[in-house]
Amino acid sequence: MFKLKILLAILPIIALFSSCLTGLHQLVTYDKVTADNRVVGTWQQDNSTMLKIESLATSDFAKSITRAKVEKEEINIGFNSKEDSILYSNSYLLQFTKKGYTYYMAASLMTLNGEIFADILPAGVAPLMPPASKDINDLFSGIGYTPSHTIAKISIKENSLQVKFLNGDFIKNQLSKGVMAIKYENDALFNTTLITASSAELERFITKYGNDERLYSAENTITLKKI
Q1: Residue 77 burial by CB count (10 A; 0-12/13-18/19+): exposed, middle or buried?
Q2: For the chain, which residues make up each domain, given as ranges?
Q3: Residue 116 has pLDDT above 90, yes or no
Q4: pLDDT, tens digit (0-9, with 9 covering 90-100), for 201-224
Q5: Strand ranges (E), the chain
Q6: pTM for the full model?
Q7: Among 10, 69, 182, 217, which has the highest number of CB atoms less than 10 A from its own CB?
Q8: How far is the C-alpha of 109 from the C-alpha of 34, rounded, in Å?
């Protein structure tokens, strides 16, 4: 029952990404990741939702995962490879609370055509009032959920952060017409289009189309103020 509640809590964030465009593979790889600590801090949207951004590697979230692995006496503690270590040591943890749950997302940045793009991946979710259950140690265990990546273009100013997610409707329309070409599959479960292109193919796609403002929309744009 607890795992079902966790899955239901995850659905709102899946719905958010479904209104944009999700991919099976990451845009940002370890050899292309760029750290930009201007994004670090506490941000607020419309005097409501609070978003905390911090270094992923030094976050309490990452430490809690390591502690859980130690308690389970697992052999692979921390990052799985040197490449993972480089990538996530230069990535960020996004954290916000909504409707009784705290959501965690990992974000990696890279620069293309002079613009900053973020690869965002759901990392976890936890209830504000955790039940007395050992299942809390592994929220995604046994629920059959594979997180997907979401791409956003970001603009950083002194006290503001603008996040422009890709406009899924526009891109899907272009794909169906054959105007744009990138590997994809339709996800019948959530009625979405899942991009299956490799990291290199995603980079070429963003390099070619990333400065086309039609790729973004006001509906998929979030403006945050630093507090």
Answers
A1: middle
A2: 2-226
A3: yes
A4: 999 999 999 999 999 988 889 999
A5: 22-23, 41-45, 49-55, 92-98, 101-112, 115-127, 149-156, 160-166, 184-187, 192-195, 216-226
A6: 0.81
A7: 10
A8: 5
